[in-house]
Amino acid sequence: MNNFKTEIISWYSANKRSLPWRETSEPYCIWLSEIMSQQTRIEQSLPYYLKFIDAYPTIFHLAEAKEDEVLKLWQGLGYYSRARNLHATAKYIAYELNGKFPDNYNDLLKLKGVGDYTASAIASICFNEPAPVVDGNVYRVLSRYFGVDIPINSTKGIKYFKTLAKELIDHEQPGEYNQGIMEFGARQCKPQSPDCNICPLNESCVALQKKMVALLPVKIKKGKIKHRHFNYLIINNDEKTILEQRTANDIWKNLYEFPLIEDKHELTEEQIIKHDIFKKYIPHNKFSIHLYNNDKIVHKLSHQYIHTKFWIVNLQTKIENGIEKKQLNEYPVPILIANFVEEFSF
User: Fold this and answer.
1) How far apart are CA 134 and CA 13, in angstroms?
2) Phi/psi of residue 240, nearest 5 degrees
3) Which residues of the chain does CATH 3.90.79.10 include?
4) What is the pTM of this model?
5) Does domain 2-132+153-187 have CATH number 1.10.340.30?
6) pLDDT, averaged across the chain
7) Where in the sequence of the chain do the CATH 1.10.340.30 domains occur?
8) What is the pLDDT of residue 173?
9) Which residues contact 191 (CB under 8 A, 6 or more apart)?
10) Can 324 be counted among the known catalytic residues?
11) Which CATH class is domain 226-344?
12) Which of the following is catalytic: 34, 129, 176, 183?
């Protein structure tokens, strides 16, 4: 095991990518980078990290921001609950803890939006606590190197790999080791077709010896994908349109969207016009309607597919309680809506 951790740290020292949060041990920066990198590739999260650091250079700046501003800056990064939790935690640390982050794993774990992995990363990188990280990259490295076929998303697997990670972590350099094994999984022990010929661990890797690299890690398949049909009403006159905030405990909470008719099935134009939600916004016959996209746009989320149609409804009357079209880009919206707004050219 000593050889394993030594090789990981050595490989990391020689191969690590140059990233801004690796130039500091400031908890705010590490926390921000780790939250943004959850279920997200670094190449995607890096521009957002730079934008956030520029807009909110300290935890106090982030705490003082309005949630709409935070969500707008986060727009396109997905998993928006991360942004809402980020903002809530910033307020808590700024106002309740006087801007000082908890300095240990157990207290970090109490923060909203901070789970085992993020608490371990901050504790090890910022406070040199030997708290092992276990994420998708780490699961892959450990399962292959030690030849473990226990499903990584099973209760047994989660416990087993956490225990193994605790045994392996370098107590002298926990932050370097944690970052090293995550980087190793992301760049060397990749999910598909890793180059095992140049791997420093190839002589002792069980999966390579037993020709099991492509079979590990094992993951239990989850339930079926949920399909939802969204029909957006783009209600228009010369100057205004209508946006609403999503407030239900569902995807895209607190983001904005056009009036929505959701159904379990695909709806026709006739069904749209007869729908109560349509009548709520268009209580008269002074309108014209047409479908903007003849082919449904399928927006794929982790456990559900959103089948989307945009219905253009032009009015001959004024829109009450609408917003100016030129203000559309000021509101935080799902990327699905943002792409439509850009393409439609209001």
Assistant:
1) 20
2) -120, 165
3) 226-344
4) 0.91
5) yes
6) 95
7) 2-132+153-187
8) 97
9) 140
10) no
11) alpha beta
12) 34
